[in-house]
Amino acid sequence: MKNLEQDLKTGNLKQVYLLYGDEPYLINLYKNRLKKALIADEDTINLNIYEGKSIPIPAVIDQAETMPFFAEHRLIMLENTGFFKGSCPELADYLPTMPPETVMVFVESEVDKRGKLYKAVKSQGRAVELTHQNEKVLTSWILGLLQKEGVKITRSALQLFLERTGDDMERIVRELDKLIAYVWGREGITAEDVEAVCTVRTENKIFDMINAMAEKKQKRALELYDDLLALREPPLRILALIARQFNLLLQVKDLRRQGFDQNEIASRAGIMGFIVRSCLRQAEYFSEDDLRRAAEECVATEEAVKTGRLGDRLGVELLIVKYSSPGKK
Is 47:77 a contact under the CB 8 Å cutoff? Predict the structure, then answer.
């Protein structure tokens, strides 16, 4: 990402870019910045956009061979083509011969780095993976966005905000817009403002549900389950999130046992630092064997539902009841 940022700042752009990864906000951001850097806003003649998995490669090459009309560049954008799941030899062989006035930008969700086309892009331009950002980067970014609006935020409010949003940057922007509008005319955002305005994620409710299960607060755990059902969350998705949380607790607990500190655990588990702290506290209620059994039981419940031996809603409810009953693990 640093190299791409440098290309945009200097104007020394490559002929081919591949943007891929699991952070759509960054992918869209850099896609639009590349477009703005290469062609004028109103220029539709020198812009060709292809999307989907049935794009005729000869047509793309024909466009790439067409000289730009009264402009410096012709920009060809190809999105979600699936070309990078295989070798796509036609395009891979063509890229080194492409006219210097033509720039290709690929936007993909999945790539095979062993493929011929990926290697050709790496050779002729840049392949840029844009992934979820860590807590430090997100904190700096959020503070920068707020500074532009002349709004401050307390440390506790920022942590609560990230707990509510997670690392989804599109969600962060939406929730920040709501907060800024809510505190208009005031200097700063407090934790109370975040509580009042920001939507609670499903993952937060799952975390609270497992806390209630661990503390044997069965009524509270079932209330949270009912809340999720009222929000039209499918029972099997709820089950998958419960299983994911048990597996995350097992991973965090195992990494702590191996002697890793909070930052190392966050890096290895792919989560933010404050989530590690919360998970470590929650994991104290369980042994590693408890967590392993719970995760396995989630799998067994899913299988029972999918084979018709158990209803989905009842299956998840029975699991919650079992792990929230006094004396049960």
Answer: yes
Ranges of H-type helices in the chain = 2-10, 24-38, 57-65, 89-94, 116-124, 135-148, 155-165, 169-182, 191-197, 202-214, 218-230, 235-257, 262-269, 273-283, 288-306, 312-324
For residues 78 and 17, the answer to whether their CB atoms sit within 8 Å is: no
For 1-41, how does the pLDDT look when each residue is reduced to its tens digit (9 = 90+)?
789 999 999 988 999 999 999 999 999 999 999 999 999 88
**Shared-domain flag, residues 275 and 294:** yes
For helices 24-38 and 2-10, angle between their N-to-C axes, nearest 10 degrees: 20
- In this structure, what DSSP letter does residue 271 have? -
Residues spanned by the domain of 239: 202-324
For residues 214 and 245, membership in a common domain is answered with: yes
Does 207 share its domain with 186? no
CA distance 322 to 326: 9
Total domains present in the chain = 3
Are residues 60 and 144 located together in one domain of the fold?
no
245 closest CA partner among 160, 319, 154, 151: 319
> What CA–CA distance (Å, rounded) separates 322 from 152?
45
CA angle at residue 198 from 194 to 201, to 5 degrees? 125
CA angle 66, 69, 75 (to 5 degrees): 60
Binned at pLDDT 50, 70 and 90, residue 160 comes out as: very high
Query: pTM of this prediction?
Result: 0.77
How is residue 262 written in tokens?
């909070």
Q: Is residue 329 part of a domain?
A: no
The answer on 17 and 116 residing in a single domain is yes
CATH number at residue 283: 1.20.272.10
